[in-house]
Amino acid sequence: MGSFFGWEPLQSKASKQILSVKIMSAQTEKNVYCFVSGKNWKLSLAEIASYLDARGIKFEVSEFSRSFFTIKTETALDASVIDDLGGTLKITQVAAFVPTKRITDAFLEEDKQVKKQLKFDLPLDALADKMPRAASGKAVFGVSVYWADPFFKPAARAAQRFLGSALKDELKEQDKKARFMGFPRDRQNPQLTPVEVLKQGLLENHAEILMCIGKTETAVGTTMAVHNPFEFQKRDLDKPAQRKIFGISPRVSRIMVNLTRCTPEKVFLDPFCGVGNILQEALLANARVIGVDINRWCVEAAKRNLSWLTREYSLADADYAVVQGDARDLRRKIREVDCVATEPDLGPALREVPTEPYAEKIVSSLKPLFEDFLVSAHGVMWAGSYLAVVTPYIKTRSGKAVTMNIGKMAQSVGFKAVAPFREVAFVGDAADFPLRDLTSFVDVDERHKIGREISIFQKPQ
Fold first, then answer.
1. Three-state SS string across 123-155, please?
2. How far, in Å, CA of 106 to CA of 31, rounded?
3. Closest alpha carbon to 254 in 279, 225, 274
4. 299 shares its domain with 360
5. Structural domain span for residue 28
6. Is 339 helix (H, G, I), strand (E, B) or coil?
7. Which residues contact 152 (CB under 8 A, 6 or more apart)?
8. If we measure between CA atoms, which residue out of 8, 5, 73 comes closest to residue 34?
9. Measured between alpha carbons, how far is 359 from 363 in angstroms, rounded to an integer?
10. What are φ and ψ of residue 92, in 5° steps?
11. How far apart are alpha carbons 198 and 181 in whole angstroms?
12. For 351, which of 108, 284, 295, 424 is 20 to 30 Å away at the CA?
């Protein structure tokens, strides 16, 4: 970690501690961020890596876990980045780092001396400076704590209360009246939800502080952006044409768009577009969008939904077309495209968890469709372009999932599998990344019998 941020561990004396924290704060140059991930952390990190790489933003990952990632970028990120991501809940701008051992000593070992010294380690003045003085009454602020290792969970609530109390004292020193926002008694983890952050106005007031407890270093900073679930819900439930059983969520749709390295003005194709869920997210990414579906009703429904989207989001220059056609013969309708993301037929809706033989029969019956689609997609994609495709992940009574080995099919057509983490710079303690060669990601809800396995391919240059 030291080589990544360029600083040495803090000294024990308070004066040296204060100086060290100031040095750390300066060296982050506002370009170090903690990304709090959604429920599928591997997919969330793959999306971030693909998104940054597609925009030529150089970055390093110094911490990864199920709950957050610490990422240093060459250039500063705008808060609006979170609107482009489907798998990130919060983005925090790191103000300073403190050794995680101090957190564990203070709140797991309950070392009073370390806890007393910790106030000098934390960038309380910098955090309080950002918060405006309330026009009347008391300003509200909150603290959320995340951790990389479950070992730290018992320390989290105490750390959250300590940081909140210390920050309240600092705000008082600055003559800012403030109220520390608490949690309901049944809250398992000391973490504010994006909805709470939005409804309490914490974002615009720079008033949510995050402590991200890493394996060796703990990041502290101000939340600069949160996922807006109301917008995703709007695109899911308010669009005029619905297809509930076969629908893919806006969240997963946006992730898939980003996995294809889709950027503004690129030509984006969904050959099994349905009612246009993935197309909507590509259009919001300012791509030039093409949808194809063999079902005429779906074509008309997708057109209605995209028309609704352009009105709701004032997309005056939206460029899209939806046509009836066969994904196995795209050349009849489509010229070259830059990126493809799609969810083909995943099999029948299942009332019960199937047996292994029945699940294998479903997958076997779908293989010819996928094989023909891959050949067809390869024929309309530019060299160097990316494809993200969903295949079925079927739970069975034996507990073993039945999947489709699409990698071999894609390779035989001429695609190469893409491992989003292979070229990522993992540094410090994150350098030993065990999933560097991962080329597919499973996304499955506990209540669903059929989940999604998302694979990424590239047509070689």
1. CHHHHHHHCCCCCCCCEEEEEEEEECCHHHHHH
2. 28
3. 279
4. yes
5. 2-227
6. strand
7. 100, 103, 104, 108, 213
8. 73
9. 6
10. -120, 135
11. 13
12. 295
**Which residue has tokens 């060796």?**
216
Give exposure, 202-218, as e/b (b: 16+ Cβ within 10 Å). Answer: bbebbbbbbbbbbbbbb
Q: Are residues 164 and 301 in the same domain?
A: no
Amino acid at 429: D
- Taken in order 308, 309, 313, 315, the sign of the CA dihedral is negative
CATH of the domain at 332: 3.40.50.150
Cβ–Cβ under 8 Å, residues 160 and 211: yes
Nearest Cα to 107, choosing from 58, 144, 38, 156? Answer: 156
Residue keyed to tokens 């693909």: 50
- pLDDT, tens only, 292-341: 999 999 999 999 999 999 999 999 899 999 999 999 999 999 999 999 99
Do 198 and 324 lie in a common domain? no
96: left (phi over 0), alpha (psi -120 to 50) or beta: beta
Both 32 and 145 in one domain: the answer is yes
Q: Which positions ≥6 away from 289 have C-beta within 8 Å?
A: 268, 270, 279, 282, 283, 306, 318, 319, 320, 321
What are the respective helix, strand and coil percentages of the chain, to the nearest 5?
40, 25, 35
In the block, residue with structure tokens 């009703």: 297
Averaged pLDDT, 250-279: 98
Q: Are residue 207 and residue 300 in the same domain, yes or no? A: no
Q: Which residues of 108-123 are buried (b: 16+ CB within 10 A; e: fewer)?
A: eeeeeebbebbbbbbb
Neighbours of 57 (CB within 10 A): 15
pLDDT digits 0-9 by tens, 212-260: 999 999 999 999 999 999 999 999 999 999 987 768 999 999 999 999 9
Structural domains of the chain, count: 2
pLDDT exceeds 50 at position 8? no
- Domain edge (last residue) among 201, 227, 253: 227
Q: Could you say which of 227, 254, 276 is where a domain stops?
A: 227
Same domain? 260 vs 317 = yes
199 and 94 in a single domain? The answer is yes
